[in-house]
Amino acid sequence: MRKDEMALFDEAPAPVVDPESLRRSRRERIGWGLLTAAVVIGLVFGLLPSPYVIEQPGPVYDTLGSVEHEGEDVPLISIPDEQTYPTSGELNLLTVSVVGRPGATPSWFEVLGAWFDQTRSAVPTEAIYPPGVSQEDRDAENAAQMVDSQQDAIAAALVELGYDFPREVTVSSVLEGSPADGVIEADDVIAAVNGEPVHSVDELRAAIADNGTDAPGTFSIVRGEETLDVEVTPTENGGQAVIGVGVQMAYEFPIDVELRLDDVGGPSAGMMFALGIVDKLTPGAMTGGDIIAGTGTIDSAGVVGAIGGIRQKLWGAEEADADWFLAPADNCAEVVGNVPAGMQVFSVSTLDDARAIVEAIGDGADTSGFATCEAS
Question: Dihedral, CA atoms, 96, 102, 106, 108, nearest 10 degrees?
Fold first, then answer.
């Protein structure tokens, strides 16, 4: 074999390149690269803080039971100097826990999980922590609301049971330039509007609304030892008739009622506090041994008001094995579609409504005649 023939024999044949395969390989490499980048970006983004906090069911407290207070197990409600009666079952008040705070909010992965979890809600951080309000100020406000709620609950319960005692709507502040400025003063007690007595903040608001903004109303006030009738013409603010005063309730209770619940703030436990007091001061166990949960603000006249976090409270009640739930009528729109299986949710507007429902449940009576959130 000649040398040139040997050279030709030793050389490998040139590969044949398929242009389509080359393009397909390039596309696959680009696709995998983009997928990898997307996964990395998703992981990084998912771990970043979000502008949300998460609301979820919080601790449940039985108003007929006991709680830890200053290291001791004590009754949540105690009435030391009055005849009380044995209770059974549970009257549970509900709370909402918030996961996250400004500067330490949940990740996007956690928020995504909350969006797909019917027991939790992701809400904008500023809805829970308003800008410019410190954590200390927020905690102080929640604590003050809890104190006011407890006082209103005691008043509502005692009124429900027929006790007679002073309930005074006291002026705490007067807005400069408002209709009441120069007419009503701080520390005045507003006793009546247009001759109708007012014994709660809600009754005062209703009386002002009934008067309207077209004519002056006559406000009977107590200033020191003097009783005066003054005229104030309400003005409209935010669609409501107002006179420009801040008010708070002052009570002189005929009996001593002590409520102990540490580290819980806000006004939403009022109705359940009141029911617990009524049960302890009433012969016979109202619940009949059932577990009943509920929520709602209350005023001294027994009017039940709307609260926040109703969805989380429904699931908190479910976790506490409650088959019955008392919800403020004004929250019913949020209740529909979020009721745990097997739970009956009643719509209540007053303490009297709530008491009647609890007594009917305890007696094993037919409850079909009471309003429910599904049918209210």
Answer: 130
Tell me which DSSP letter residue 165 carries. Answer: -
The percent of residues above 70 in pLDDT, for the chain, comes to 87
pLDDT for 320-362, tens place per residue? 999 999 999 999 999 999 999 999 999 999 999 999 999 999 9
Helix (H/G/I), strand (E/B), else coil: 183? coil
pLDDT tens digit string along 226-275?
Answer: 999 999 999 999 889 999 999 999 999 999 999 998 888 889 999 999 99
**Helix residue ranges per DSSP H, the chain:** 3-10, 19-47, 108-115, 125-128, 135-160, 201-211, 270-280, 310-319, 332-335, 351-363
Q: What is the pTM of this model?
A: 0.81
For residue 167, the model assigns a pLDDT of 92
Nearest-angstrom CA–CA distance, 90 and 288: 9
Task: Show the CA angle centred on residue 261, arms to residues 255 and 265, nearest 5°.
Answer: 110
Residue 289 identity (one-letter amino acid): G
CB-based contacts of 362-365 (< 8 A; 24+ apart in sequence)? 362/89, 362/285, 362/286, 362/287, 362/288, 362/289, 362/290, 363/288, 364/288
Task: Decide the pairing of beta strands 291-294 and 240-242.
Answer: unpaired
Give the pLDDT confidence score for residue 129 in this predicted structure. 87
CA-wise closest residue to 151 among 29, 231, 269: 269
C-alpha distance from residue 61 to each of 67, 113, 244, 260 (Å): 8, 27, 38, 11
Distance CA 255, CA 279 (A): 16
pLDDT digits (tens, 9 = 90+) for 164-217: 999 999 999 999 999 999 999 999 999 999 999 999 998 999 999 999 999 999
Q: DSSP secondary-structure letter at 266?
A: S
How long, in residues, is the chain?
376
The pairing of beta strand 291-294 with beta strand 324-328: parallel
- How many helices (H) and strands (E) would you count in the chain? 10, 20
- CA distance linking residue 360 with residue 376, whole number of Å: 19
How far is Cα 277 from Cα 155, in angstroms, rounded to an integer? 10
